[in-house]
């Protein structure tokens, strides 16, 4: 029964996000699912089925990937309506997805260990070499410049500013990506984040070195 529901969910997500070019494609979702299940095993906590379902569906209602928040939520609700799961499980999945987004750095209290694990898995995929690649894919799709030294890094932002304010992909490292390691919830995720954090530091160092050589 559960295997069948997972299969159904995989097909749905693949159809929805398979062609995505912003770094939120099927491969991202699959990595988040695998990381989440790995953390679940390492921590020996949480319900693996709920974790897997929430990881698979976490980007379906994302407002960045839908015309409006309402359309995204309706898409998730309508899919969950089609599968035979108890309401308690469906509500838990929705609650996890609602609470794990970064949203400009505002701290949302995560009520369950499953939410902490899925959030960690999603954040791990936003850092390191893959995180760097995803940041530039998303920035390009959004029409953001790679870097402009005349733009300041934004410290405190409303959600509206975070989503729509003027920034660059290099600034995004300081506004979000470099902060994620310290916001992780589980010991396993923190360990996995170490080398990814170093990779971003090295990348930025090399980036500025090359930039200064050509713009000094």
- Total number of β-strand segments? 0
Number of helices: 11
Structural class, by secondary structure, is: mainly alpha
Task: Identify low-pLDDT runs.
Answer: none
CATH 2nd-level architecture: Up-down Bundle
Q: Biggest sheet, in brief?
A: none
Radius of gyration: 18 Å
Principal-axis shape: globular
**N-to-C SSE string, H for helix and E for strand:** HHHHHHHHHHH
Helix content: 55-70%
In total, the number of domains comes to: 1
- Beta-strand content: under 5%
Look at the structure and give the mean pLDDT.
Answer: 92
CA distance, first residue to last residue: 63 Å
Please give the CATH class.
Mainly Alpha
Q: What is the fold-level CATH name, i.e. the topology? A: Methane Monooxygenase Hydroxylase, Chain G, domain 1
Question: How would you characterize this protein structure?
Answer:
This is HD/PDEase domain-containing protein. The structure is a single chain. The mean pLDDT is 92. The chain is globular. The longest helix has 29 residues, at 187-215. The protein is built from eleven helices and no strands. It is mainly α. The protein has a single domain, classed as Methane Monooxygenase Hydroxylase, Chain G, domain 1.
């Amino acid at each position: 029964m559960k295997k069948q529901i997972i299969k159904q969910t995989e097909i749905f997500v693949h159809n929805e996000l398979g062609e995505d070019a912003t770094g939120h494609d099927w491969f991202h979702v699959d990595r988040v699912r695998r990381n989440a299940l790995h953390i679940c095993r390492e921590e020996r906590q949480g319900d693996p089925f709920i974790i897997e379902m929430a990881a698979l569906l976490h980007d379906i209602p994302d407002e960045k990937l839908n015309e409006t928040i309402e359309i995204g939520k309706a898409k998730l609700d309508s899919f969950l309506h089609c599968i035979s799961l108890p309401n308690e499980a469906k509500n838990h999945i929705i609650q996890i997805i609602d609470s794990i987004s970064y949203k400009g750095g505002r701290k949302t209290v995560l009520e369950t260990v499953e939410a902490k694990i899925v959030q960690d898995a999603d954040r791990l995929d936003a850092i390191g070499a893959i995180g760097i690649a995803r940041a530039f894919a998303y920035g390009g799709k959004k029409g953001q410049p790679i870097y402009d030294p005349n733009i300041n890094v934004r410290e405190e932002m409303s959600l509206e500013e975070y989503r729509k304010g003027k920034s660059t992909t290099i600034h995004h490292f300081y506004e979000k990506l470099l902060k994620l390691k310290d916001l992780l919830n589980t010991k396993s995720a923190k360990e996995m984040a170490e080398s990814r954090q170093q990779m971003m530091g090295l990348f930025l160092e090399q980036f500025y070195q090359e930039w200064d050589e050509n713009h000094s």
